[in-house]
Amino acid sequence: MAQLFVDSSKIARARELARSAALGVQAFIDRHTTVSIERTVLRLLGISGAGTRGAPLANLMVDKLREAGVLDKGAAYWLGRALKSAPGKDPLHAIERVAAHPDKLPALPPEEETQLREEMRADARAAVKELRERIDRRTQLKASLKVGSFEKAPWKYVIVATGNIYDDVEQAKAAAQLGADVIAVIRSTAQSLLDYVPHGATTEGFGGTYATQENFRIMREALDEESRKLGRYVHLTNYSSGLCMPEIAFMAAYERLDMLLNDAMYGILFRDINMKRTFCDQYFSRRICGFAGIIINTGEDNYITTADADEAAHTVIASQLVNESFAHQAGMKDELIGFGHSFEIDPAREDTLLREFAMAMMVRELFPRSPIKYMPPTKHKEGDIFFSHAYDVMADLVAITTGQGIQLLGMMTEAMHNPFLMDRYVALKSASYLYRAARHLGEEISFRPDGIVARRQRDVFDQALRLLEEVAKDGMMAAIGKARFGDTARTPEGGKGLDGVVEKAPDYFNPFLEILENG
Amino acid sequence: MAQLFVDSSKIARARELARSAALGVQAFIDRHTTVSIERTVLRLLGISGAGTRGAPLANLMVDKLREAGVLDKGAAYWLGRALKSAPGKDPLHAIERVAAHPDKLPALPPEEETQLREEMRADARAAVKELRERIDRRTQLKASLKVGSFEKAPWKYVIVATGNIYDDVEQAKAAAQLGADVIAVIRSTAQSLLDYVPHGATTEGFGGTYATQENFRIMREALDEESRKLGRYVHLTNYSSGLCMPEIAFMAAYERLDMLLNDAMYGILFRDINMKRTFCDQYFSRRICGFAGIIINTGEDNYITTADADEAAHTVIASQLVNESFAHQAGMKDELIGFGHSFEIDPAREDTLLREFAMAMMVRELFPRSPIKYMPPTKHKEGDIFFSHAYDVMADLVAITTGQGIQLLGMMTEAMHNPFLMDRYVALKSASYLYRAARHLGEEISFRPDGIVARRQRDVFDQALRLLEEVAKDGMMAAIGKARFGDTARTPEGGKGLDGVVEKAPDYFNPFLEILENG
Amino acid sequence: MDKQLIRPYGDRKDDGVVQLSFVLPVPASEKAKEAAAQVAKKLGLTHVLVATCEPAGKDYSFFVVYGRTHMQLDYNAIEVPVVVHRKHGFDELNEVIKRDLARKIVVVGACIGTDSHTTGIDAIMNMKGFAGDYGLERYPGFRAINMGSQVEPAALVARAKAENADAVLVSKVVTQRDVHKEDARALIDIAKAEGIFEKTIFLFGGPRVDHKTALELGFDAGFGPGTKPSDVANYIYYRIMERSGRPPPPQPTAHGTPDAGVGETI
Amino acid sequence: MDKQLIRPYGDRKDDGVVQLSFVLPVPASEKAKEAAAQVAKKLGLTHVLVATCEPAGKDYSFFVVYGRTHMQLDYNAIEVPVVVHRKHGFDELNEVIKRDLARKIVVVGACIGTDSHTTGIDAIMNMKGFAGDYGLERYPGFRAINMGSQVEPAALVARAKAENADAVLVSKVVTQRDVHKEDARALIDIAKAEGIFEKTIFLFGGPRVDHKTALELGFDAGFGPGTKPSDVANYIYYRIMERSGRPPPPQPTAHGTPDAGVGETI
Ligand code: B12
Ligand code: B12
Ligand SMILES: Cc1ncc(COP(=O)(O)O)c(C=O)c1O
Ligand SMILES: Cc1ncc(COP(=O)(O)O)c(C=O)c1O
């Protein structure tokens, strides 16, 4: 199938370096929490509503606690305390009361403190149990159906993005009927910068549909129904990125989504979100994904939509190894880490199919147990939809030949608009053709160990190794400061959301983290 | 590059069988001439005009001679005699006079007879010299320009077929500017059944443009000019098929065409032309092509547009070997025999890309010195132009990877209409992309000797061998009678044009055949 | 009947999005691009986006354009003629032919005019059939005479007359400048002149044929791409019964095969 | 001026052939196919051929349609604004800036609104440039400040004011529901309010931007796909000179580089 021409000792060395780079950050992560993590804790504890003007209760409560300067003890602790001190009151008012004069709040006697925490732990266990039951329902449904429209072929992944969840449902159903295995609902352009998750069903978004818990529910319900009709399970995915990584991970888990875009660095590089914030958030979000059996997709494809795909190929590999370490540190199994990469090579150049084979095979083989998410060309797509279609077909060919796990299907209208119904139709039909035509090609052919493909792999890996040496030496934060990833430089204090990062108090309390880290 | 998994002893055996089958027919060919051969002789001798109602003079003359029952001596003889007996008269009237009462014509005294033949031989030599000079001009022009838009890639071959030679010129020029290496002007639907070649420039045809000498001239002139502008030689091709194979070969040679569709059996199978007629005609036409350095393209692609491409794959191979023998017997060099085959496999099936690789590599390697003409999918093309385009792109991939010589580019609108300007644009652009992207893929990969591809090659060849055993045993004519080729049965006495076949008299005279066969 | 108003659907319901491509005989330039936009606007499109303007040779440009149309159609007002009849399985059809007609059905077919695209008519008539469905030759209930390619209309009619055929099967694949319609009309005229028009069933088939067009040309039915021989066999039987005043009711058969509809294949 | 009447060209000159594709919200059937033909006819097409009708899911069908339009355009009547100016090579431009202005040209750029597609503005402003053509940062004659992505219009104007910029470079890539125009208009309004509109050159760029649109939105010039940094650098210099009343004549330079035209790139 896919061939790897890189020295295994070099691979081991690179993994070691990536691990040490990620470990450097992990120390920071372990000492901090964020507003988003704490809101997730509240949501896990059942705080799911919104206030009068649509602001989520979790936000209102965490904001109060942060303003009061007491968030460092953990929102779970305060919720417990507030409910205890004002039994019968609604949680928001209770928290408001507690947070109004935090300095006036006496420390609890040790045994009460212990009891409070134990009670909250019990609540958390109950919440986790409920979550587990919901997830088990997905497992059962999936087990009763066929998974994957083609055996031994990537799952066909398509995007819906009308901005209106009800149109999205229409388009998703049509796509499923045509053979889509995964439906991704793309988010509205600005959502990743919102420091809250909007509430309820939505019908207006720019370039995508808001990720809300209700939208998740609506779409999953429609896909459950369609899956049953088709006798084939249709996966659903969304984004756990931006300023609300862990919250969205929780909502996705609760609404039984199957996959999530989730990257340790994407928000930093491409949304200018503060790196401390993102590092903390990704950790908790991945703890949830690991628990819920959600496959994450990393975002290395974005490096080569920004920088040149030939020149920056090694940053993809280096970043994947870093992402792997972060995911491992968050307890994720390889089977859930869907490494992202993409066919972004400039079609005006020579030997691009060969160089793509080199990359696709290398990524496939570096992570043999992980589902690889392969993305289509986007950056060099043209208004000439016929050409763009031909270019996509080459991505289909590489995907099927090298045994990728999940294939995002390219859209011939990529250069113009979010995919229309007909664009998806065209893409699904040709991908199915390619899967039929070339499903066994990978088993038939082998590449010369001294050819263009093998050399390219070795070159790229050598560069990745050099980059990782540097990163391990300087530390992740410094490396990002030098624009080593995605051609974009960010500083530890820059970007959005730094004010949502809080150093944990010695008696910081997060019953979910306890469960997730130990279970 | 291309791999051949077939036993060389089997290949040798198959060649031997094909040779013996063709030799069986050659004996017949050598004893006969046809109206079309004789018209060609007259045209070579300068009889190029048309009569009052557009009927070519060569036809009027040969018809007279045939009606008079004297064609078996050869038209050259009678032209010589007629001009001698009526000096100063125009050739048609002279022939008419001779043919009016042939029984009254006394035999010439032996020395006069010898002198007449010697004079005609001198005329023939002069005519051949002029032809050679015209062809040398092509050779010079070609030598002064780049040949082939991509190095080490097939020539890109596209069709123009507006029915109007002037529109054809427009479309051909545009195609050349976009990278076409070969322009084929498709003929009007019914032309192959005309027992004459229309005269002059034409502007009305069905599904194609009439092949006339003037149309050839107009197009070649336009392409010469365009070639000079582009610094790259643009080839021109047409059809030497149907009832006028040798005449068109002559016109093409005279007007410096570069290639011709020319098959030993196509007319028989697909136009229901009498087999005796076609066998004779193909021989003389190929003698001319061989002399003029015209690459012929055989028509085995047609077998698998008629029969199922999977089931009839072996008939392609068997027929190519037969076509090869016929061409060799007509003195053609391997370098001029462009074997035709095509990517006609039904895309609804499994592993079609693999099975196509098997065929394309086999044809490529069975005839290592010959330019292989690879045709795109046509039969399973759909009205869905996007799908059809994807399907064509796979043919591009196979063509470039397996090192085919000439690639007819598929048209996404194949199922609807003759190619429009925009269809050619789309095809040329993606073929160029594929050539850039995959030009070295063939050198990088190798197929398993025990895989689907290798097995398929061996299976197909074994079937071809069995078929050739049968053909060699029964003879070509009987095999055609049993629908062994192209799923179509034809009898030796059936089909059109049998009345144009004439057994040669013992003193049959054809000075051109003498020259062509001896030098 | 209620109206069912529909519009093209791209991104959101009823947005009216259509994609266009075409060539203009001018070199690619900003001006050419504007000309392309005007073409789209003259077609009544709004929100016109010229997605690409490419030099398709020195003197031509190729465009891909997106735009929105504001027209709408009442889908309920569209009428397309269809024939619905029972569809029997292979054995069952042979049985009912024997039972109801007590003889073989005789059919004569050809690809007419200068057309030599025989695969279509062969698919219907020859043993092998099409897509796993046997051809008429294979049915014991049929006598099928396939005259092949390039048959003059007069020759086909003459043979049908000679054979006393129940049905004439006409195939036309080349359609440039409507040559298929011309040839089809000629055939019907000759059949009338020869006096076999009334008593014979005329079927017209080919990739650009549909039932409606065939009716307009004077045929009994039209068969387009993807037609199966069994559809044709059943139709002929049904039509013979219908003409003799005892049409079989349109309902599923004992074998459970569904109803077949002429003009309903996609 | 003489008329130059043009039409789409498929097979033969002026045949008016166009290709369409679209989806209708009805299941695929002969009736759907007829509906598709009516859509084409309502667009004024004749010779309509519904090349395919495919089930794009249970409730939708996808069509490819060919037809002919009979409209024609007078190509000579089409007007597209273009700016033509001299295009200098890298060194030469730096020289003439030094000679004519005796200072660096200051430019401030950003990708505005919620848009974070920075590759376009980076291609123009950063060292590396685009397609082998150096970015403005690399020119000794320029001081180039790239504020990056997701910059509020007000922040961009404030910075331009603070830097006393000669030119403001605005990039917008997301265009859904014309958000690019909205943001561009907002920027111009703020520039006016802040009093820098008159003295500053405003450039608008992005994949769906053209010179005409930019002019309509109040900018000095618009730059679409494929723009090179050197085009932009030359344009800014040219525009500064023009505004100061001494426009350099549009003619080839000593270095032999051809004239550049804004709004002429394809
Ligand atoms: C195969 C083929 C050929 C083969 C034909 C071999 C053969 N033995 O038939 C060869 C290579 C010989 C050939 C030659 C030419 N061809 Co051709 N050919 C095709 C091709 C690729 C496929 C046609 C086919 O076999 N389809 C498969 C059959 C099974 O489908 P079908 O015909 O639609 O039949 C089904 C139904 O329609 C129906 N049906 C059909 N007939 C009937 C009749 C009845 C009574 C019934 C009930 C049903 C029925 O049932 C069938 C089964 O479902 C088409 C392009 C395409 N993809 O469609 C071009 C095409 C038809 N050819 C075309 C042309 C122009 C030619 C030539 C004129 C080119 C030239 N200038 O040399 C020549 C000359 C042919 C001539 N004199 O007629 C054009 C026609 C353009 C037009 N619309 O007018 C096409 C569309 C290609 C193109 N884009 O240019 N061709
Ligand atoms: C790369 C890319 C991304 C990258 C951006 C990385 C980065 N650092 O920029 C990532 C992956 C992050 C991304 C994200 C998204 N993207 Co995006 N993306 C693209 C893509 C594939 C290529 C754009 C590109 O880089 N082009 C290359 C550059 C060099 O070209 P350019 O921008 O045209 O610039 C040239 C000229 O226009 C000009 N120019 C441009 N600006 C300026 C300014 C001035 C002053 C001048 C003089 C010239 C100039 O000069 C440049 C050089 O010639 C396009 C699709 C496509 N192929 O076009 C989609 C596309 C633009 N994205 C789209 C969308 C919807 C999104 C998302 C909203 C999706 C989502 N819901 O998650 C997000 C959010 C982004 C946000 N907040 O803005 C849509 C926009 C639809 C629309 N028309 O509104 C597109 C068209 C894809 C699609 N079909 O859906 N995207
Ligand atoms: C990991 C990841 N998250 C998120 C996104 C989407 O962007 P946004 O955060 O604006 O929703 C992407 C884009 O492809 C991505 O790769
Ligand atoms: C060898 C050969 N001759 C001729 C033709 C064209 O047909 P016609 O003889 O009708 O021009 C073909 C069709 O592709 C062919 O392969």
Count of DSSP H/I helices of chain A:
20
Shape descriptor of chain A reads: globular
Work out the strand percent of chain C: 15-25%
Helix residue percentage of chain A: 40-55%
CATH topology of the largest domain in chain C, by name, is Rossmann fold
| Ligand names | cobalamin, pyridoxal-5'-phosphate
Q: Work out the number of β strands of chain A.
A: 13
Oligomeric description of these chains: heterotetramer
Just name the CATH architecture of the largest domain in chain C.
Answer: 3-Layer(aba) Sandwich
Write structural notes for this entry.
The complex is a heterotetramer, with two copies of chain A (519 residues) and two copies of chain C (266 residues). Chain A has helices spanning 8-31, 35-44, 57-67, 75-85, 91-100, 110-143, 165-177, 213-230, 245-254, 266-271, 275-292, 303-306, 313-329, 352-366, 385-402, 421-438, 441-444, 452-474, 476-481, 511-518, and strands at 32-34, 146-147, 155-160, 182-185, 232-233, 235-239, 259-261, 295-297, 337-342, 372-375, 406-408, 445-447, 501-503. Chain A is α/β, with parallel strands linked by helices and 519 residues long. Chain A has a domain at 154-455: D-Lysine 5,6-aminomutase alpha subunit (TIM Barrel, Alpha-Beta Barrel), CATH 3.20.20. Chain A has an eight-stranded parallel β-barrel with strand order 3-4-6-7-8-9-10-11, surrounded by eight helices. In chain A, strands 1-13 form a two-stranded antiparallel ribbon. In chain A, helix 14 (352-366) crosses helix 18 (452-474). The radius of gyration of chain A is 23 Å and the shape is globular. The mean pLDDT of chain A is 96. Chain C folds into two domains: 5-74, 2-Layer Sandwich (Defensin A-like), CATH 3.30.30; 82-265, Rossmann fold. Chain C contains seven helices and twelve strands. A five-stranded parallel beta sheet of chain C has the order 8-7-9-10-11, sandwiched between helices. A three-stranded antiparallel beta sheet of chain C has the order 2-4-3, with helices on one face. In chain C, strands 1-5 form a two-stranded antiparallel sheet. In chain C, helix 2 (90-101) runs parallel beside helix 7 (229-243) and helix 4 packs across helix 5. The two termini of chain C are 26 Å apart. Classes of the chains: A alpha/beta (519), C alpha/beta (266). Chains in contact: A-B, A-C, A-D, B-C, B-D, C-D. Chains C and D meet through strand 2, helix 1 and strand 3 of C and strand 2, helix 1 and strand 3 of D. Bound molecules: cobalamin (2 copies) and pyridoxal-5'-phosphate (PLP) (2 copies).
